Amino acid sequence: MTAKQDAPRPAAPRLSDLMPWSVAPLRLGRSWVRAPDPATLRARWNALVAAEDAATRERLFRPSRSRTLHSAVGQLPGQATPTERLARAGGPCPEPVRILHGPFDQQWLLPDHRLIDAARPELWRVADERQLFAVEPGQVPQVPGPAVVCSALLPDGRSPAGRPGRIHPLYRRPGGAEPNLAPGLLDLLARRLDRPVRPTGLLAWITASARHSPDGTLVPLTGDPALWDTGVALGERLLWLHTRGGSAYGPHSGQRPRMPGGRRPYVRSALPAHGLPRSIGYDAGEEALLLGDGRISPVPPGAWEFHAGGVRVLEAWFAQRTTPADPAEEGALAALRTTAWPQEWTSELLELITVLALLAELGPEHAELSARTANGPVITADALRESGILPAPGPARRPASVLDHHEEGPEGQFALL
Q: How many domains does the chain contain in total?
């Protein structure tokens, strides 16, 4: 190799430099507050409040150092849940909310602060219809997968393989106010690229260009205006797919992802009417996903092989719904699970297959963007430091003061923020 070939590429900025405020994953403390279906969560809550005595309720609840039946805890922002101590709580189940579990699994959560060890209230304060979250799912070395996954749902930030990740909200305040970006970054990019650069455009570029590295998620920034436009267009399509049409931005806003006619996955052999399928597999010759005796096709190889967070996405999704309860959980709330396959899961699975297939089809465009960025003019981390953009000031790395929600404190008291 020549000396020129041996020269290292200029260092790209990290995602944590560009989007300086980030939050650690939610720490639930007890697995039973999350489930793939809301009916299971309601059954668990009802079993908890129906406990005949304090000892039984405590055994079901599974206390931790952060949460016991006697913990005094206020509401999560935007959630109208009771705040009396759980030791004497009763009444209907808190309304489950949809969240993103891991990179691509949409599940349900009981949004009751009394039940969750570390719910990250700062995320709930800024979660609304304008918000998008960029999630670093945590990479497993030598395993493929996107470096950043975006969500319109509040994400739990967990990695299926157990690697720590980070959650970066696009906005620091509700209503799409105050972008969570290094101060001055948008103006610098607009001058360099000679075009307006909006927060959602930069997030689209990040989604399309981010890559894993031992030092964290890196985001190469091109100085080529035409390439920037190409990357933003690719990123907008990725945002649309990641959010399953839930993003309020981009040319596909409001449309659900669909495969072209003739390539849409369908159920060819029904899933069991009773019980759950015990296995998942793939017939490459027939492009068919096998779930016990059930069969879905066509399922392109790219959808089956799609990895994120260190696991094959379809296998992880299936395991979350069908893995038998741990024998150690016998008699615990986590052992209360759905015993039959709901029709909703089939619809969710067909949509997930569609999303993964369309993402896989964008692989060549993603590789081309990476190569062209590496071989063209770039805006390096050093250049951002020389311009005074980096490091971002301390306040930009901390949550903003948000008072848009009335938050009830413990035992009905008003919460002082």
A: 2
Q: What is the pLDDT of residues 185-226, one digit of tens each?
A: 999 999 999 999 999 999 999 999 999 988 889 999 999 999
Show the domain range for 314. 266-324+340-367
Q: Among the residues of 3-155, which ranges form H helices?
A: 3-6, 15-18, 38-49, 54-61, 121-126
Instruction: Judge if pTM exceeds 0.90.
Output: yes
Strands (DSSP E) found in 276-392: 280-283, 288-291, 294-297, 307-308, 311-312, 378-379
- Cβ 314 vs Cβ 351: under 8 Å: no
Going from the C-alpha of 198 to that of each of 170, 201, 396, the distances in angstroms are 11, 5, 18
Q: Which residues, at least 6 apart from 58, have a Cβ–Cβ distance to it below 8 Å?
A: 68, 69
Residue 177 — φ and ψ, nearest 5°?
-100, 145
Of 329, 267, 334, the C-alpha closest to 298 is 267
Structure tokens at 23: 């939050």
- Assess if residue 1 is contained within a domain: no
